[in-house]
Automatic annotation (TrEMBL):
Protein's organism: Ruania alba
Name the record gives this protein: Solute:Na+ symporter, SSS family
Gene Ontology CC, one term: plasma membrane
Entry-linked InterPro entries: Na/Glc_symporter_sf, Na/solute_symporter, Na/solute_symporter_CS, Sodium:Solute_Symporter
Membrane topology: Multi-pass membrane protein
Entry's transmembrane regions: 6-24, 45-64, 76-100, 121-138, 158-178, 190-208, 235-253, 273-294, 321-354, 374-395, 401-426, 433-453, 459-481
Catalytic activity: L-proline(in) + Na(+)(in) = L-proline(out) + Na(+)(out)
Length: 506
């Protein structure tokens, strides 16, 4: 495909997204709650698309397809993780949704600061999330650059494809905030589902006589191990499967960009709908990716770059007009994840870092209205700065997208989950114990992951023993330190108590 044709299509697509950003800006009220959460008016259908579009990205098209190609059906464990997050979201998500609505909380680090009555808890959690998610955002820019470079045979260089996505995301998120993100996610998410299904059908029926015949051909090539657990390698043995299930389910709930959606839900009914629909949407995407990967196994055996098989295969079989739309779907998927990350991180930086420093320098508090406007302005200013950090990762970070996700992002955020869950369910949990737990568990994880602690793990992911130690530190530390003030803790826990049933008058 010529670079000129691709640039024209990208310009039209970018214009649509920026226009949606402008529409989002027209309905805004210039408050941080509106900019970050859309005034908490997220309904069911937009919620489905914005949650799945946020979750699936370059990681899906490249990383998961490569995992299926290399390791087989064991990668289906990801579907189970989204099913497992359903009960967590239904119960724990309900609690954080109630507290956030009551006290005007706009992100998960603000919740932790408020619950533990300690800036240190929110600061530490925020640092971990920023360190984990900026590389993840960089993976989206990398996915855009790789895709556009591949389909244009170098006509659009890698750096230009990455910068293009970064600039477009910055423009429409700065313009309309959460409303723009949701509206673009509906477009980008719908495009992702339709084009992924179309690409899977065309690839399967171009190279085989159908889905059953495709699996028979995989077996005929001596790759039957890919069709059963643990798959074609040792990666998806039982300890690792359990590790991935626990890590991803807990991290899905804790991720600040997904917490943003839990808090933005218009009603508890919307929250329950998200809990049910997330695994359904995941299963649909993984079904397509699995069969696309199996086509790759049959037609491109021994490919040295499994993460690149999806764009390589669709370039061979799709007509030019459909290939163009399919490429836009990939770019849309990367953008729909990057936009959510940068928006929620901008609110974390504004609330947890910049605003307290500015307040201290002023020496006096602003009126609520002026402070809200200042916070919103700060969040907007932080957007291009955070995006620039993601671009640095895209240009100078790890080359493997799947490595960024599995090695850094999800495990690091997962280790915040015990502190978050304790805050929601255990009155005795204390700030010193929470801070120590997060720091100790992250250091242990980093040491195990990098091989600095040469301890045999027996197939378990390094984050699992780190989490166990973190939970022990949290429990023991809370019991050994002064309990939090009862009146402060009850601000939260009294909200979870059922309404008393009125006594009928005789």
């Amino acid at each position: 495909m010529s670079a000129t044709t691709m640039w024209i299509a990208l310009a039209v697509f970018a214009g649509l997204l920026v226009f949606l950003g402008y529409l989002g800006h027209r309905g805004s009220t210039n408050t941080l709650e509106d900019f970050v959460l859309g005034s908490r008016k997220l309904n069911k259908l937009p919620a489905f698309f914005t949650v799945t579009a946020t979750l699936f990205s370059a990681f899906s098209y490249f990383g998961i397809t490569g995992q299926f190609y290399t390791n087989g059906i064991g990668a289906w464990i990801q579907v189970a993780t989204t099913a497992a997050v359903g009960p967590i979201l239904y119960f724990a998500g309900t609690r954080i949704w109630i507290v956030a609505r009551k006290y005007g909380i706009v992100n998960v680090t603000e919740y932790l600061t408020d619950r533990y009555r300690s800036r240190s808890v929110g600061l530490v959690a925020g640092i971990i999330m920023i360190a984990a998610l900026v590389p993840y955002m960089g993976a989206q820019f990398r996915g855009s650059g790789l895709t556009l470079e591949a389909v244009t045979s170098g006509g659009i260089p890698y750096w230009a494809g990455a910068v293009f996505l970064a600039v477009v995301v910055t423009l429409y998120v700065m313009s309309g905030g959460f409303r723009s993100v949701v509206w673009t996610d509906v477009i980008q998410g719908g495009l992702m589902y339709v084009l992924l299904a179309v690409a899977a059908l065309i690839l399967v029926f171009t190279h085989t006589d159908g889905f059953g015949n495709l699996l028979d051909m995989v077996e005929d090539q001596g790759q039957s191990a890919l069709l059963s657990n643990p798959g074609g390698g040792e990666l998806f043995g039982l300890p690792y499967l359990i590790s991935v299930l626990v890590i991803f389910a807990a991290a899905h709930f804790t991720m600040p960009q997904l917490q943003q959606r839990w808090m933005a839900a218009r009603s508890h009914s919307t929250l329950k709908f998200m809990a049910i629909s997330l695994p359904v949407g995941t299963a649909l995407i993984y079904f397509c990716l699995f069969y696309i990967a199996m086509v790759g196994v049959v037609t491109r055996p021994g490919d040295p770059a499994p993460e690149a098989i999806y764009p390589a295969m669709i370039m061979e079989v799709l007509p030019q007009w459909l290939l163009l739309v399919a490429i836009l779907a990939i770019i849309a998927a990367t953008g729909s994840t990057a936009n959510s990350i940068v928006l929620t991180l901008s609110s974390i930086v504004a609330k947890e870092y910049v605003n307290p420093i500015a307040r201290k320098r002023r020496g006096s508090a602003l009126s609520p209205d002026r402070e809200n406007k200042a916070l919103t302005t700060t969040a907007r200013i932080m957007l291009p700065i955070l995006v620039a950090g993601g671009l640095l990762v895209a240009f100078f970070g790890p080359s493997s997208i799947i490595g960024i996700i599995v090695s850094i992002t999800w495990p690091a955020v997962f280790l915040i989950f015990p502190t978050l869950l304790a805050g929601l369910y255990w009155r005795r949990a204390t700030a010193p114990a929470a801070v120590t737990s997060m720091i100790v568990s992250e250091l242990i994880f980093l040491s195990l992951n990098q091989g600095w602690l040469p301890i045999p793990l027996g197939g378990w992911h390094p984050a699992i023993p780190a989490a166990i130690v973190g939970v022990i530190v949290l429990v023991v530390g809370s019991l050994l330190t002064r309990p939090p003030a009862k009146e402060h803790v009850e601000r939260h826990f009294k909200l979870f108590e059922p309404e008393p049933t009125p006594t009928p008058t005789p």
